[in-house]
Specification:
- This protein is an alpha+beta fold.
- The chain folds into two domains: about 5-100, no CATH class; about 145-160 and about 170-285, no CATH class.
- The chain has helices at about 5-15, 45-50, 55-60, 70-80, 90-100, 110-125, 135-145, 150-155, 160, 245-255, 265-270, 275-285; strands at about 15-20, 25, 35, 65, 185, 190-195, 210-215, 230-235.
- The strands form three sheets. It has a four-stranded antiparallel beta sheet, with helices on both faces.
- Helix 6 packs across helix 7 and helix 10 packs across helix 12.
- The longest helix is centred in the middle third of the chain and has 15 residues, at about 110-125.
- The model is unreliable at about 105-110, about 115-155 and about 160-175 (pLDDT under 50).
Length: about 290
């Protein structure tokens, strides 16, 4: 379970303020970023929802109520679209809804990656099922990601290097091939590390690909002393709109947008919208294959 201190730290970094006074009854895009600090240890799911509020708003959620049961907030996070989760039901209703949804993904990957990093600072090394430390492994992978040489992106683009198998007519299948785990894909002036997560799956645990990348403006005033970074899972939840290339396109959009933001904090809060991701995939010739 994610330490509460890590969640509080991330909310404060994102501009939220914990106060003794009242908070809004509903959080919208324009609401003051003030959270009632009373009994926050009982509001973990609500606080996680606040971390994902930009995504929820982008999906069409107009407001987030502050007086619901913890199971409501968990259902909002887990649902394919939080708008579909009704407000004001009892715990039994949300428990049944969660059973239908399937509690497999957890918080949005960008949020979880940041939480893992903060947890390392607040709790020390955290052992995972693979006997190692996932946050430290990701940090090492990002740190060691090489800077791509000139024109490397064009040479290594999946759409260009994918050869495929020869057909019966002798023609070669030019369908793009996703980069395999263990490789580093040059993209938008950065290197995207492709890893398998978790490194070793326990019984019944699903493994999936994870993409990690540092901001292409690392080392500039944009990032300061701590580079921006992104991590995106190629899990079913992150592929539901446009298929298996969607997570990589999400990362590409985020990297390309770096120059639009004045600093690291603003860049880290940016989450590419579905229409931006789709446009990016079309630009790169990546197949759009929605899973729903």
């Amino acid at each position: 379970m994610t330490p509460l201190l890590a969640i509080v730290h991330l909310l404060q970094e994102a501009g939220w303020e914990f106060v003794d006074g009242e908070e809004p009854l509903r959080f919208t895009a324009d609401s003051p970023r003030k959270i009632n600090a009373t009994n926050i240890e009982d509001r973990r799911e609500f606080l996680l929802c606040l971390l994902e509020l930009p995504r929820l708003l982008a999906e069409g959620t107009l407001e987030l109520a502050t007086d619901q049961t913890a199971l409501y907030y968990k259902a909002v996070r887990m649902a394919a679209n939080g708008v579909t989760v009704p407000v004001g039901k009892d715990a039994g209703f949300y428990r049944a809804l969660l059973k239908d949804i399937g509690d497999q993904v957890g918080v949005d990957i960008e949020t979880q990656t940041q939480l893992d990093a903060v947890e390392l600072l607040t709790k020390g090394k955290r052992k995972r099922t693979d006997g190692g430390n996932a946050g430290a492994t990701e940090a090492k992978a990002l740190k060691q990601s090489p800077s791509p040489p000139p024109n490397a992106e064009a040479a290594a683009s999946p759409a260009v290097q994918a050869g495929g198998a020869a057909s019966s007519s002798g023609a070669r299948d030019i369908r793009p091939m996703l980069p395999p785990p263990g490789t580093v894909l040059p993209l938008q002036g950065s290197g995207v590390t492709v890893s398998r997560f978790p490194a070793r799956a326990s019984a019944g645990e699903e493994r999936y690909v994870r993409y990690l990348a540092r901001c292409p403006l690392a080392g500039t005033g944009h990032c300061g002393t701590k580079p921006c970074a992104i991590s995106r899972n190629a899990h079913s939840k992150q592929c539901r709109n446009f298929g298996q290339w969607e997570p990589l396109a999400f990362v590409g959009c985020w990297l390309r947008a770096a120059s639009r933001f004045e600093n690291r904090e603003m860049h880290m809060l940016y989450k590419p919208l579905p229409n931006e991701v789709r446009e990016y995939m079309l630009e790169h010739g990546w197949p759009i294959e929605p899973t729903l």
